[in-house]
Design a protein that fits this description.
CATH topology: Serine Threonine Protein Phosphatase 5, Tetratricopeptide repeat
Number of domains: 1
Distance between the termini: 28 Å
Low-confidence stretches: 1-19
Shape: globular
CATH superfamily: Tetratricopeptide repeat domain
Number of strands: 0
CATH class: Mainly Alpha
Helix content: 55-70%
Radius of gyration: 17 Å
Strand content: under 5%
Mean pLDDT: 85
Number of helices: 8
CATH architecture: Alpha Horseshoe
Order of helices and strands: HHHHHHHH
Length: 142
């Protein structure tokens, strides 16, 4: 049986669509399983302490606080505030935050959509994150 060129293209497009669906978007979702667990256990009484830790350079606390804002757990849901804390964590070198920030810039979640910034943060995250490597491949595909 001869495989037509259109069938090959359709199969490639279907594969890419499936991979894109598998990629987690950042909007109102927590993109890191360990952080998801921490946010689920977070009470509103712990937010003040978490914020203080984040302000004094704890990148893990900043990312956790950002994800709490992303989903509205113990704080009002606010994507812009989430992006602020995620950016702080990403700049401090947290790979999960860098991946999340790369996704945010790709779709414009709490920040303006910016493909160059998306790629920059995903490349940084890709040093430690398989998800970031996959995102780079998918977003770079024509």
């Amino acid at each position: 049986m001869e495989v037509k060129r259109t069938d090959v293209n359709r199969t490639e497009n279907e594969r890419r669509s499936g991979a894109l669906a598998a990629l987690e978007s950042s909007h109102e979702r927590i993109t890191d399983p360990a952080t998801w667990s921490a946010v689920q256990e977070l009470s509103r009484y712990e937010i003040k302490s978490l914020r203080r830790q984040a302000m004094y350079g704890d990148d893990s606390a900043a990312f956790t606080l950002g994800m709490a804002y992303e989903v509205g757990n113990s704080v009002p849901q606010n994507c812009v505030e989430a992006a602020r804390w995620v950016t702080l964590a990403a700049e401090a070198g947290d790979a999960a935050a860098q991946y999340n920030l790369g996704l945010r810039y790709h779709v414009g979640d709490g920040v303006g959509a910016n493909q160059a910034e998306s790629e920059k943060w995903l490349r940084k995250a890709a040093r430690k994150s398989r998800q970031a490597k996959l995102a780079l491949k998918i977003f770079a595909a024509p």
